[in-house]
Amino acid sequence: METKKCLECEIPIIGRVDKKFCSDYCRNTYNNKVNSDSKNLIRNTNNRLKKNYKILSELNTSGKSKVTRNKLNNQNFDFNHFTSIYTTKTGNVYFYIYDQGYLKLENDYFLLIKRE
Questions:
Q1: Share of the chain above pLDDT 90, in %
Q2: 28 inside domain
Q3: 75: in domain
């Protein structure tokens, strides 16, 4: 009979027939390695959304304000990360990060709005 080995540390496993790891530590370490790429993508995206949200919140204290693209760019706002898009009946397209939104206006201005 062949002895099964832990998928992480390759120590022989004692116990149930379907057991794959010798300990919780090895199971967690193995699964963290396997899922690291997708977890990094999610973590980086969430961090980017948080940063964008913080920028909009700080620039829009009144619930409705106007800023320039330069002001957003200077704070490293990332226009590629948002949580939803809302198009009005008149065709205006609002981009939202949770409840903080922005609408592109003329001359590189943006209307910042907080959804109630």
A1: 78
A2: no
A3: yes
> Is residue 15 assigned to a domain?
no
Residue 99 domain boundaries: 51-114
**Token digits for 93?**
């397209």
Residue 89, token pair as written in the block: 């009946």
Beta bridge partners of 38: none
* Residue with more model confidence, 115 or 49: 49
Judge whether 9 and 22 are in contact, CB under 8 Å: yes
By 3-state DSSP, what share of the chain in percent is helix, strand and coil, each rounded to 5?
Answer: 35, 25, 40
Tell me how far the alpha carbon of residue 10 is from its chain's centroid: 35
Model pLDDT for residues 32-61, shown as the tens digit of each residue: 888 777 788 888 999 999 999 999 999 999
- Cβ-based neighbours of 45, under 8 Å, separated by 6 or more: 81
